[in-house]
Design a protein that fits this description.
The protein is α/β, with parallel strands linked by helices. It is built from ten helices and 20 strands. The N and C termini lie close together (9 Å). The structure holds zinc ion (ZN).
C-alpha cells in the first residue's frame, strides 16, 4: 500500500454536506465508492482552517502543535499562524527526512524548507512565495468583486501547477488544497444551489486531475487522500466583539473567541460581559498549549451565532447580521464542524468507516506514504487503513 501520495485538502466540506450532494459529485463519489470513505472525520477542538491543517500535518492536538487558532497571540496582538509557529515536525518534514521528495502547492502551514517544490498559500505574502518552480501559478486574491470567480480561478491555477509537478517531477508526496467550497459557504452559504455548484466545481477539477493521472500511467503509482479541514454551520447573528469588550485584545475564530487578559479580575469582567450575550467560557478542554493557559481564555458563542471584529461592521451595535453567513469552529462536539476523508488508489480497501478520530489522518497518510510516524508523548491514534 505504501508509495507515492497525493493529498488534496478540500476546504470546508462537512460530513453532512457531502452526504447531501454526493450524488452530484461523480468523481468524489467514484473515489469514495472504489476506496475508503470516512463518513464523519472528527473535528479538531478548534475546527478552523489553520488548527485543522496543523492537526492533519502533525497528528497531535493544539496543546502540542501550538496552532490553537487561525491567529496566534504574540504577546502584543493576534497575528496569522504560519509554518514557523508549528511546534512539532510536519508530515512534509518527516517524509523529507526519510528520503521522500515533497511538493506543497498552496498548502497552509507547510514550510518551504521541508519541500523540494513549494508554492505559498494564497493568503500569504512574503519573500519565499515559490521554490524550484519555473512558472509558479500564483494568483493572489484581492478586492471583493468577482471574489468567488477569483477563488475558483486560484484553485484552477494550483491544480495546473500540481499537475505539472506530478507529470515532470513525480514527487513522492504532493500536498494541494482547493478552497472554493469554503469561501462560497462563507459568503453565500444560504444559497444551497451555489454551494452545490462550488462542490461540483472542485469535483470537476479533481476529475481533470484523475483523467490526467490515468492517461499518463501515473495513476498506478499514486494513492490519493482527499481530506477536508472542517464543515460549516449557518449563522444568524454575529457578536461584534470590540463593542462588547472594548479595549481587549481578542481574536474572532468563527464560533470561538480567543481573549488575551492580564489577570483574574479582568478575566472575570470579560466573562461577565460576554455571558450577557449567551457566550460560554471553555476552560477545561484542550484548546491551548500550557504556555498560554495563564494569558489566553477561550469562549464559545451560543447556537447559530459567531464572533466578528468591528472592522467588518459600520455601526456600534453589539450584535449584527454576520458578514460570513456560514462559518466553523462552533465549539465542543458540534456535528456541523465534522468533515470527510476519502482514501483511494492501488491497494486501498473498499470500505466505509462511519467515524474516525481527527488525529487518525496523519498516521494514515504516513502509512500510505511508507514512512515512519511516531509522535512523541501523544495519545495513540491508529491509522484508519
Ligand atoms: Zn478551512
Amino acid at each position: 500500500m505504501s508509495g507515492k501520495l497525493i493529498v488534496v485538502l478540500l476546504d470546508g466540506v462537512g460530513a453532512d454536506l457531502f452526504a447531501l450532494y454526493r450524488h452530484r459529485l461523480p468523481h468524489l463519489h467514484g473515489l469514495a465508492q472504489g476506496g475508503t470513505l470516512v463518513q464523519r472525520l472528527g473535528a479538531d477542538a478548534n475546527a478552523n482552517s489553520m488548527p485543522a491543517r496543523a492537526g492533519m500535518l502533525t497528528g497531535v492536538d493544539a496543546t502540542r502543535h501550538g496552532i490553537y487558532a487561525n491567529n496566534l497571540w504574540n504577546g502584543q496582538h493576534f497575528s496569522p499562524a504560519t509554518a514557523v509557529d508549528v511546534r512539532v515536525p510536519t508530515l512534509a518534514r518527516l517524509a523529507r527526512s526519510q528520503g521522500k521528495t515533497v511538493a506543497s502547492v498552496g498548502f497552509g502551514l507547510v514550510s518551504a524548507d521541508d519541500c523540494d517544490w513549494y508554492l505559498s498559500p494564497w493568503w500569504e505574502d512574503g519573500c519565499q512565495r515559490a521554490k524550484a518552480l519555473d512558472t509558479p501559478g500564483i494568483h493572489p486574491l484581492a478586492g471583493s468583486t468577482e471574489s468567488l470567480t477569483r477563488v475558483a480561478a486560484n484553485d484552477h491555477r494550483l491544480l495546473q501547477q500540481a499537475w505539472q509537478l506530478l507529470e515532470q517531477q513525480h514527487p513522492d508526496l504532493l500536498l494541494l488544497e482547493l478552497n472554493s467550497p469554503d469561501y462560497c459557504q462563507h459568503v453565500l452559504g444560504d444559497d444551497r444551489e451555489l454551494v452545490a455548484w462550488s462542490l461540483e466545481l472542485v469535483d470537476a477539477q479533481l476529475g481533470c486531475l484523475l483523467t490526467r493521472l490515468h492517461e499518463s500511467g501515473l495513476a498506478s503509482q499514486y494513492n490519493l487522500a482527499i481530506v477536508s479541514d472542517h464543515g460549516h454551520a449557518l449563522v444568524e447573528t454575529t457578536l461584534v466583539i470590540e463593542h462588547i469588550i472594548p479595549g481587549v485584545n481578542a481574536h474572532c475564530d468563527g464560533g470561538l473567541l480567543f481573549v488575551a487578559y492580564q489577570g483574574a479580575a479582568e478575566l472575570d469582567d470579560i466573562d461577565t460581559r460576554l455571558s450577557a450575550h449567551g457566550v460560554t467560557r471553555l476552560d477545561s478542554l484542550p484548546y491551548l498549549p500550557t504556555t498560554h493557559t495563564d494569558r489566553l481564555a477561550v469562549f464559545v458563542a451560543p447556537k447559530n451565532t459567531s464572533f466578528e471584529p468591528a472592522s467588518k461592521h459600520a455601526d456600534s451595535a453589539s450584535t449584527a447580521k454576520p458578514k460570513y453567513i456560514s462559518t466553523h469552529g462552533m465549539g465542543p462536539d458540534h456535528a456541523e464542524d465534522e468533515r470527510i476523508a476519502i482514501f483511494a488508489g492501488p491497494g486501498i480497501p473498499v470500505q466505509q468507516i462511519s467515524r474516525a478520530d481527527s488525529l487518525a489522518v496523519t498516521p494514515t497518510l504516513a502509512r500510505l506514504l511508507g514512512i515512519t510516524y511516531q509522535p512523541a508523548e501523544n495519545p495513540h491514534v491508529d491509522a484508519v487503513l
